[in-house]
């Protein structure tokens, strides 16, 4: 039935970009959908095992973002040589075109009102008002590397380099409040940053001290709190959904281990014991009941390990650049250079999709 509906979809080709003008029933938010891009933009329905191309002419490979309700995708494209934001309604609504400036890494705000992205025609960032299409430039004098919205959409954390900094040093962290032109400096030289799920704190890895630290985002004048230091390289910083813990990876020359630190008392412990010589890329499931990580055995084989309070499941997979949980905490999506691997965290079933993606796919919210 689903395949029959797909064959009857009406598509409109507009300047090289495919726009859906019929309702796509398999894209309802109740299903599990992820989007990815190679030279085109695709969506894949995990439950019905269907992929569909929805666009071409992307303005770079980091050029699209989901709306927070999962019904739309915003895409930076070129139309007659002009940078545009195309808002695609996946439920069959009207498609919108917004004239913008060239950029990359768009991120939709949690309240759905704005899209922010890094400028590529100048320094700084652009913030698009979805309602009226207006464009505001911010953070002039900073070359953006990463932009993350605060959960309540009142502002965002920007990491990037000032114009006087070399690109071979770690960037700085800044706080931007919507409606306030002030760019508030937070920290110099950060390797990693992560906002807590409740938006109150920023976890960061200091490049000066190679230390894991916590900053308040509610009172930015407070000094940072140091939680842990390491002789290795600290990476892949992850908050627990309940804001109480942080998982971080410490990498040495031939060894990588995962540690978890309690925010309240600052005590750190090894998360993985006697599983492998190499453990990395840990992530909690959105419901906070499970976590997963990559591990490499002494034999050299790699696997994805899924754990909860009562069960450990090991699924052989190729080591890749990362994985993501589906919003319902059921599936894990592993991305490699030639295929996607979808792992059912409940029964261990594995589906492989031959595909090439320029960056880690994103689940429909």
Keywords summarizing the entry:
single chain; about 375 residues; 4-stranded antiparallel sheet; about 0% helix; disordered N terminus; globular; 1 helix
Overall SS class: mainly beta
Q: What ranges have pLDDT less than 50 throughout 5 or more consecutive residues?
A: 1-30
Helix content: under 10%
Largest beta-sheet characterization: 4 strands, antiparallel
Average predicted confidence as pLDDT:
80
The side-by-side strand order for the widest beta sheet comes to: 5-4-3-34
The rounded Rg comes to 21 Å
- The portion of residues forming beta strands comes to over 45%
Principal-axis shape = globular
Give the strand tally: 34
- Secondary structure tally, helices: 1
Report the end-to-end length measured between terminal Cα atoms.
25 Å
Quick overview of this protein structure:
2% of the residues lie in helices and 51% in strands. It has 365 residues and is mostly beta strands.
